[in-house]
Amino acid sequence: MTIRTTTVVMNKFKYFPMLVLYVVLMGGATSNIPAQAGESKALLIADNQSLSQSDIDKVIAFYEWAFAVKFTPEQRNQYKSIKLNDFSSDPEGTRKDFDDIISTYTQFLAKNEEEQSQTRQAFNAEFIKELRKLPSDAEAKLLLSIYDSAHSQTASNNVDNSSKGVGDISSIVGKWVWARTGSSTYSNAGTFVGSNGSRFTYQFLPNGTVEYTGIMNIMSGGCSQQIFKSRTGKVSLSGSTMTINWSKATFTRDFSCDRANNYTKTLPAEKETYQVRFKTDLGQKQLCLTGKDETCYSPTN
Question: Which of 23, 163, 213, 255 gets the most CB atoms within 10 Å of its CB?
Answer without folding.
Answer: 23
